[in-house]
Structure formats: structure tokens, C-alpha cells
Design a protein that fits this description.
About 65% of the residues lie in helices and about 0% in strands. By secondary structure, the protein is mostly helical. α1 crosses α2. The protein is globular, with a radius of gyration of 13 Å.
């Protein structure tokens, strides 16, 4: 998926082994992809990461919702944002994400 950038993304995990963890057990994305998106793809919101950079919201909305707090933490750290920003951005994502949760018939 990342082509020539894959080794650079994997290097993020070498620098911080915690980034090797998956965002969620039902999603194929790792924490390092959040850091990569913020540093090199100009991702600036939880929604940007989970909807556009990884497509997690569309694959499994409930898993994306559960992963969102960890994504918000990583983004806040990467972007130098304060706790109120983190909470606002997380709540914005959760509001949008509810529209993608399948409720059945």
C-alpha cells in the first residue's frame, strides 16, 4: 500500500516499538500509520486519519470509533496540540462516525 515508503514507515516502529501495535484488532492499520499521516501526509484530524488516510471508518465504523481516542492522542502529540483540542477533535470525529454505524433493520 505504501510502496517505496514502506521501509520508512516501518522505521517508525523501530524508533518506537509501541507504534507497531494495531489501531484495533479488527483493523489492518498500525499506530505508526497515524504518525506517518501526520508527519508526511498533512493529516490534521482524527477524521482525516480514520476516514481518508486509512479508510478505517468505512471498513469497520465501530472499530474506528474504539480506536479514535488513541489516534487523537497520537495526533495531539505529533501536532503539538493541547488537551482541549484533542477532546474537541475526538468529539467531532465521534459525531461524524455515528453516521457510519450500521444499526440493522
Amino acid at each position: 500500500m505504501y510502496g517505496a515508503d514502506l521501509s520508512l514507515i516501518q522505521q517508525l516502529s523501530a524508533e518506537d516499538p509501541n507504534l507497531e501495535k494495531f489501531l484495533h484488532p479488527r483493523l489492518p492499520y498500525r499506530l505508526r500509520e497515524v504518525v506517518w499521516a501526520a508527519r508526511y501526509e498533512m493529516a490534521r484530524t482524527v477524521e482525516d486519519v480514520l476516514a481518508r488516510r486509512t479508510r478505517a471508518l468505512f471498513l469497520d465504523a465501530r472499530a474506528a470509533i474504539e480506536a479514535a481516542p488513541a489516534v487523537a492522542d497520537l495526533l495531539a502529540k505529533e501536532l503539538g496540540r493541547d488537551p482541549p483540542w484533542r477532546e474537541r477533535d475526538l468529539q467531532n470525529f465521534l459525531t461524524v462516525a455515528q453516521g457510519y454505524v450500521y444499526l440493522g433493520e
